[in-house]
Amino acid sequence: MTNQDAIVINESGMNFGPFPRENCFCIENSQCHDETGKEKINIAEFLLLRQKQNKPPTILVVEAKSGRPDDKVPSKEIELKITEKNGKNEIKFKELNPKFRLALDQYVDEIRIKLTNGFLLGMASCLGRCSQNGLPETFKNLDFSKIEFCFILVIKRRIDENTSKPINVDLAPLTAKLRKELAPLVKSWKFHSNNSVLVLNDQMAQKQGLITP
Questions:
Q1: Residue 153, pLDDT score
Q2: Neighbours of 161 (CB within 10 A)
Q3: What is the pLDDT of residues 53-104, one digit of tens each?
Q4: I want to staple 12 with a disulfide (CB 3.0 to 4.6 A). Which of 64, 108, 165, 171 is the partner?
Q5: Residue 165 vs residues 73, 128, 160, 162, 206: alpha-carbon distances, Å
Q6: Confidence (pLDDT) at 187
Q7: For residues 86 and 78, is the Cβ–Cβ distance under 8 A?
Q8: List of long-range contacts for 137-142, beta carbons under 8 Å, 24+ apart
């Protein structure tokens, strides 16, 4: 694959690619996106077509972020106390910091909107409902009754100020919440729910062949 045949997309401090041009639709910078008006809809970065032998083609809808909600708001649990009316028995329990819970809800909702809009606008372009300028021919010729979609959030890890090394955090809670928010879309289109929504850090995305160091 020569440089002219490949494309690299820089987003959120990460280099995605190189990908074959015929397999990548940069939807965020597309004419189809421009046609949504002055106040453009929030949308994912790009769509990537992957085809493996003996498996149905899959289109990855990719969104990139340079941080997580707990970068600004502490995610640690806080202890709450409830004293019964008699003033003797005190019940203690823990729950997430309310400010973090709100930040997480807003963060996931933003990602859900971008991934959903990326899917919908991509389908609109593939079906000729909006401009196909910049849409690779390979996307136009797909049989969408057999296509799988995978919605992917890639997060660049934060660097520890003391060690200068990336900080690895548990992405399972964020993955579970995003899967719940995208469940109506995944179920209505009958995608394979277990593999249709992924949250990856930059190291994981590199292993998946999505980004280069």
A1: 97
A2: 7
A3: 888 899 999 999 998 776 655 555 544 444 555 555 554 445 567 777 788 8
A4: 64
A5: 21, 46, 5, 8, 17
A6: 94
A7: no
A8: 137/22, 138/22, 138/23, 138/49, 139/25, 139/47, 139/49, 139/59, 142/49, 142/57
- The type of residue at 159 is I
Residue written as tokens 């969104």?
Answer: 63
Give the DSSP letter of residue 159. Answer: B
Identity at 112, one-letter amino acid code? R
**What are the tokens at 171?**
């992405």
CA distances to 13, 34, 168, 194 from 148, rounded to whole Å, are 28, 26, 30, 12
CA atoms of 49 and 167, how far apart (whole Å) = 30
Q: Please give the Cα distance from 56 to 139 (Å, whole number).
A: 14
Terminal C-alpha separation, the chain: 19
- Alpha helix segments (H runs only) across the chain: 31-34, 98-126, 137-140, 172-188, 202-207
* Model pLDDT, residue 25: 96
Phi, psi of 154 (to 5 degrees): -110, 125
Q: What is the pLDDT of residues 6-29, one digit of tens each?
A: 999 999 999 999 999 999 999 999
Give the pTM.
0.85
